[in-house]
Amino acid sequence: MNLKILKFVVTFLLLFNFQEISAEEKSLEKPRIGILTSGGDCSGLNAIIYSAVRRAEQLGYQVVGFKYGVHGIIKEEYETISTDNIDRDMLSKCGTILHASTKVLTDKNGRQISTDEGDQKVIETYHKLNLNGLIYIGGDGSTKVMKKLTDKDPSLNIVSIPKTIDNDISNTDQAVGFSTAVKVATSAIEKIIDTAKSHSRIMVIEVMGRAAGYIALYAGLAVGADAILLPEFEVNLDSLKKHITDIKNKKNYAIVIVSEAVSFKDHEYTTQQLSDTISRTYYKGVAEYIKNYLKTDFPDTRSCVLGHIQRGGKTSFEDRIIATQFGNEAINCIHKNDTNVLLGIQNGKTIKTKLKDIKQTTRKLHNDDPMIKLAIDQGIFVNH
Ligand code: F6P
Predict the structure, then answer these.
(1) What is the C-alpha separation between 44 and 163, in angstroms, rounded?
(2) Around 45, how many Cα atoms within 13 Å sit in the side-chain half-sphere?
(3) Which pLDDT score, from 0 to 100, does residue 75 have?
(4) Residue 379 domain flag
(5) Is 313:41 a contact under the CB 8 Å cutoff?
(6) Is residue 178 within 6 Å of ligand 1 at its C-beta?
(7) pTM for the full predicted model
(8) Can you give the C-alpha Rg of the chain in angstroms?
(9) Can you tell me the distance from the alpha carbon of 269 to that of 261, in angstroms, rounded to the nearest whole number?
(10) Does the pLDDT of residue 22 top 90, yes or no?
(11) Per-residue pLDDT tens for 83-111?
């Protein structure tokens, strides 16, 4: 380089205080979209995050992930997520890199706060961080919270994505997490069937689902159970025992799948338990109760609770696909300013429902459900 050009470059740098912009500074210039995983976890959450980040980067956005769901917005705990720090294994890996929490709301100092204070803080943080949109991956309770938040501040741009193993969210055929939970439950029940056959036992197997019987029904059908007990309708224990007696007269063992929140026609028993550490009730013990009831006639009956294994497991291909559809569509919605919606899947395509138009946030099985009819046609005992 000759001396004249060198002098010019040095003068230019000194005059304009030119510095190279770091990658971090560059990324701060990009419009930001927030994302969080609310409530209990399930398989498929990481797949949603992965898909959202990939689409966001295509459209020139930066994604910030809040830790421990809404707690992360309240406490301003977040991190930037980019394809530099995540990889395709997110598609199959269960859990959530953003962590999850069902604990009661607290502020930065650990003081318990009301839901109104929490809402206020979410709105403040959203504006403080200058977010262009927020992707809220949650259950039916989250849809309610998002409806309330967007009523309080219509300038928020929220896209809700339905996830739960319970599959009890309205306005979608399926929630992320359900398919993997059924896959995991099915494979666990098959292992229990092996031992039931060897010992000629009745096995009563409790699955999760809260007030919705989708896991029990789908896993029960998938393993060809002898009885499926759903929480939507009361169970007549005497009729169940009669059915199991008939089965035992034909083959040496029987499989009863019971959803954790069932209730009984002729017996008083509550499975619902209160908790002071989490913000909702939980269920416990119904398989054991039914086992004790059947034991009077079949002493070798056993119970088994599948529990939280249903929330893990390598994400099924079906959950990966809908998670990818949801993550992608959520970014498209924010980009097009078509927000304050709940995403859903209908006949394989993504659909959107305006949060303000949602009357009922939960859904349950109806007794005319085609899968209930299928189970009955197959000779399975189903309370309906
Ligand atoms: O809602 C999902 C779910 O797994 C339910 O099926 C179950 O009743 C509950 O969460 C368990 O919650 P926790 O992880 O707080 O015990």
Answers:
(1) 8
(2) 31
(3) 95
(4) no
(5) no
(6) no
(7) 0.91
(8) 25
(9) 10
(10) no
(11) 999 999 999 999 999 999 988 899 888 89
Catalytic residue IDs: 166
* Domain assignment present for 307: yes
Residues 6+ apart with CB under 8 A from 182: 214, 215, 218, 219, 222
| Dihedral sign from CA coordinates of 204, 210, 212, 214 | negative
Ligand 1 contact via 40 beta carbon (within 6 Å): yes
Alpha carbon 229 to its chain centroid, in Å, reads: 23
Task: State which H helix or E strand residue 66 sits in.
Answer: strand 62-66
Average pLDDT of the chain? 92
**What CATH number is given to the structural domain containing 200?**
3.40.50.460
Mean pLDDT within 161-186: 98
Give the residue-averaged pLDDT of 134-154: 93
Whole-number Å distance between alpha carbons of 354 and 159: 9
Ligand 1 centre from 209 Cα, in Å?
A: 7
Helix, strand and coil content of the chain, in percent to the nearest 5, comes to 40, 20, 40
Across the range 321-339, mean pLDDT stands at 98
Domain of 226 in residue numbering reads as 181-311
| Strands 131-138 vs 302-305: parallel, antiparallel or unpaired | unpaired
- Ligand 1 lined by 164 (C-beta under 6 Å): yes
User: Strand, coil or helix: what is 182?
Assistant: helix
User: CA-to-CA distance for 88 and 49, rounded, in angstroms?
Assistant: 11
Q: Could you give the 3-state DSSP secondary structure of residue 32?
A: strand
Q: How far, in Å, CA of 188 to CA of 192, rounded?
A: 7
Q: Which atom of ligand 1 is nearest to the CA of 261?
A: 8
Identify the pLDDT of residue 18: 40
Q: Where are the beta strands (DSSP E) in the chain?
A: 32-37, 62-66, 78-81, 131-138, 158-162, 202-207, 227-229, 254-259, 272-273, 282-283, 302-305, 341-346, 349-354, 381-382
Shared domain check, 237 and 163: no
Mutation test of ligand 1: which of 38, 99, 140, 208 has the most ligand atoms closer than 8 Å to its C-beta? 208
User: Any idea which residue has 């939970």 for tokens?
Assistant: 181
- Residue 205 in domain: yes
Pairing type for strands 282-283 and 272-273 reads antiparallel
